[in-house]
């Protein structure tokens, strides 16, 4: 037995383009590695465990034609085509993806806009500072990043303030968050607070983390 793509990407990035075009069984086989950081392969004569702690990044069009939301280009089946296309990805798989970001098409007019106030170098510096905070925070725990927080460590380092906790509880009920999604929202909120240089997770960090949960397809 040899390691596959998810193990070869250990401690790196596993990028899946055109996510719904993968076979559903293949995508669902990633659920365990995403959750545990390892792949267990059982055969009749052997049982092997490969490391597989990856950052999963996936991209997809909103529908098969890719023009959902554009009346001039969208197909006649919109928005049903988008619902059918996105349904190729199972709910449990989506539940394990922390950030769901919708990116609008870039127009010619967008290309003429001035550069953003914060460039890639500034963002990279902020990320490096956030990682340094996490390294110092988890020095005695064995964890490397917020993504590895669980149990008592999650409660110790990622519990939001009272306003943040109240918002998270309200959202958990309104959005019907699973226990897994609730835990992941705490990790994301902790990371957002680190990027902002804040020691305590606040309501604003929880609100931003919740904004990244998957929304229904647009009509």
Automatic annotation (TrEMBL):
Alphabetized GO MF terms: ATP binding
Residue span(s) of domain Magnesium chelatase ChlI-like catalytic: 2-109
Domain of life per record: Bacteria
Database matches in SUPFAM superfamilies: P-loop containing nucleoside triphosphate hydrolases
Pfam families given in the database record: Mg_chelatase (PF01078), Mg_chelatase_C (PF13335)
Ranges of residues in domain Mg chelatase-related protein C-terminal: 118-213
Cross-referenced PANTHER family: COMPETENCE PROTEIN COMM, MAGNESIUM-CHELATASE SUBUNIT CHLI
Identification of the protein by name: Predicted ATPase
High-level lineage: Bacteria, Pseudomonadati, Pseudomonadota, Alphaproteobacteria, Sphingomonadales
